[in-house]
Amino acid sequence: xxxxxxxxxxxxxxxxxxxxxxxxxxxxxxxxxxxxxxxxxxxxxxxxxxxxxxxxxxxx
Amino acid sequence: xxxxxxxxxxxxxxxxxxxxxxxxxxxxxxxxxxxxxxxxxxxxxxxxxxxxxxxxxxxxxxxxxxxxxxxxxxxxxxxxxxxxxxxxxxxxxxxxxxxxxxxxxxxxxxxxxxxxxxxxxxxxxxxxxxxxxxxxxxxxxxxxxxxxxxxxxxxxxxxxxxxxxxxxxxxxxxxxxxxxxxxxxxxxxxxxxxxxxxxxxxxxxxxxxxxxxxxxxxxxxxxxxxxxxxxxxxxxxxxxxxxxxxxxxxxxxxxxxxxxxxxxxxxxxxxxxxxxxxxxxxxxxxxxxxxxxxxxxxxxxxxxxxxxxxxxxxxxxxxxxxxxx
Lengths: 60, 325
Fold this sequence. Notes:
By secondary structure, chain A is mostly helical. Chain A has one helix at about 5-30; one strand at about 35-40.
């Protein structure tokens, strides 16, 4: 192997290690939470807001 | 393009046009959308004791809301008609109530606080967050009633506007969470610890289900965990199960079982242990952990007597854990 080829292989291996390490670091970093965007229209039925003073039938 | 929802530990990878497990967070053209923002299916004014919160503004009214959807699928869910509903099916109509209107309604009915409850405020996270922030700025307190199945970053962000929370600790085993709730225990424990560290008033609810989580050793371990990680003053509510949804094969929890659970937790050193969903005289009252005298007497959601003086026992002057005014 010539010196030039050896240096090319060395650089190639080095780049692969750097790329692999940065991929690992990216995966290991905490996930950044992204909020959901409000959808423009409710997909179900809507009803008018009436008297809300009555206690709920739901638990909680 | 697929979208990953990073709100809860399920980390749903959502295909275009599909929703996550909660049914309300949808991938539309590669963007994560919440379809329930500003559209609660339920708005009521409840007594705060119904949440249940026994150490937070006793006797006060609380404006309580929920949208459809839940990230858990508990086989015993008491509110499954709304928690397991799909907004697109249209069975459950909703109100148009953006955060500004919610705060206005709270003021109109002179409620000191808002509860994000009934289903799970985690799945309508953005609506909860914006409403809680606005309410906080308007001097209104915020309460979460939740299963606590959420990732750390969104949880911390939300907690800065939360004054109190009742968080379910459904059992102390991974098996129970996996088999009954389609979830896991560890994130719930983390959420409890984080809420405590954020100085949010916490009360814990454990729904006692015959044969599934009512073994004395499990109840002891659960009580120990609460004492060790959240403190002996953390109120614990043992709540009675009723056959509902996909769990109609089991009997309702007896008062005797709940009383046993209460005794176990008190023997383990928890100071405030309550019984819910079943009529119980002693199990609904608050007693001073110092001198053992009656402090707050309750019947159902009604306060019959409140002897607290500025958050302290009138007899021995012990400070009682809670937000009292």
